[in-house]
Amino acid sequence: MRSLRRGARPARRRAASVLALLAALTLAACDSVGGSGGTTGGESGGKGDTGAPYTLRVLASSELSDMEPILEEARKKTGVTVRPTYVGTLDAVEQIASGAAEQSYDAVWLSSNDYLRLRPGAGKRITAETPIMTSPVALGLRPEKVRALGWDPAKVTWSQIHQAVVEQKLGYGMTDPARSNSGFSALVSIASGLSGAQSALTQQNVAEATPKLTEFFAGQKLTSGSSGWLAAAWSRRTDVDALINYESVLLSTGKELTVVRPADGVVTADYPFTLFTAAGPEAKQAAARLTAHLRTPDAQRLITSRTLRRPVVPGVELAKPLTADQRRELPFPGSRAVADGLLDAYENKLRRPSRTVYVLDTSGSMEGERLARLRSALAELTEDFRDRETVTLMPFGTSVKQGEVRTYTVDPAAPKKAIGAMRAQANGLSASGGTAIYSSLREAYEHLGGGPAAGDAFTSIVLMTDGENTDGAPAPAFDAFYRDLPPAQKRTPVFPIVFGDSDRAALDHIADLTGGRLFDATTGSLDGAFEEIRGYQ
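Request: output the structure for the sequence above.
Response:
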């Protein structure tokens, strides 16, 4: 989801500010941009008589993939097959709000519908919302850290967590609120807890809490567009003590964590299975059968045991890792303006700034359409850069094109200056030479190593290439170089983009080695891949 900026942003970009808000609670940290749907069996268009087989086409959050075995059991009991299509955050919200989703799907199943209603006209497109399960925001800590802090997990508050961060006793990871449901849920929980708001957050609450929020987010050492990647990155980092995410995600990491739900309140996802108003009578009958089954005690016990989410039916016992202690449910912002303002403050003021090197293949093979696509994708990307963000464009061919390496910092007082310069450079890129992937990556690491300490910013490298390495250092030399880096520099991940004829296996190795993630622009758009990476920067 695009970050927010100023009133001068084009109309399409201003609309993205709302999408960013909606995204935060609609799709999970494992989210990917785009993505194909899976199926749990059955054929579309089956008979809709009560008890007869029927397939529901569902636009679903990717985190709900863990429900597929449970949905298969439901199919056997009800005759209703769920055919989910897992989509990225922006795509899901765009489709629902525009009315396109109801043309292709019968229902939507996201973590929450509260923010969807802040999108003008979206509320009238959905009906028959049935909560299936819940999971609150929580803090997962290494057990030794809980002991060192002397905390009683049942009594910890957001203020205590804030104080530990201020005293530099606690560092944590959290998904990007502009792209992840858990990230925005956490942002609302933290802002509500630190502001002392007794009801839905107001703009005044956010303004009054800004000094404390700035201190709190100084302790964020990991960011991510995906809960899955966040957990994997956390396991590589000995300097990150905790994760903030949904309770079920934390308990499902397979890591030894003490899970704390702050006593002064949290935001909870309720995963409502929701019909589109335009769904036909057969689909509505099938959805009623399905949701009735999913809320039976047997199905609720299966859900809590398999997914570690909480049942919504009274009397169903919680899965063993879950505790029954009550917590105040924090309300969501009641207006689009407050939600937009909170997210804008996080993106441009509260969080650590980003430092990114874009290592761009401009070899001879990029001549023509490929180079045109790169120029277009970079021009699109420039409108997404945050205040205080530092971006380096490092084109390469046979070697890094030193005369074309430029570094820009987005000045909050005059952001258009850096953005305009980046766009001009992107439009002027030309193709020539061979493909020196590994030598160029080494120079990117050396470039970042010469700047501020890694702890002052979220650092990353984005590698875009359309071919295999033909010049400069070979892969083993880069591997050796990376392994010899100081620990702080090793924490900078590389996010390679598969594009054109690039060597997928080689790029996958680079991502695995550095703790990054591979993104695919062969089936989707190049600008879509760049945009998805934004959640990790």
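The chain has three domains: 11-134+270-311, 135-268+327-346, 353-536.
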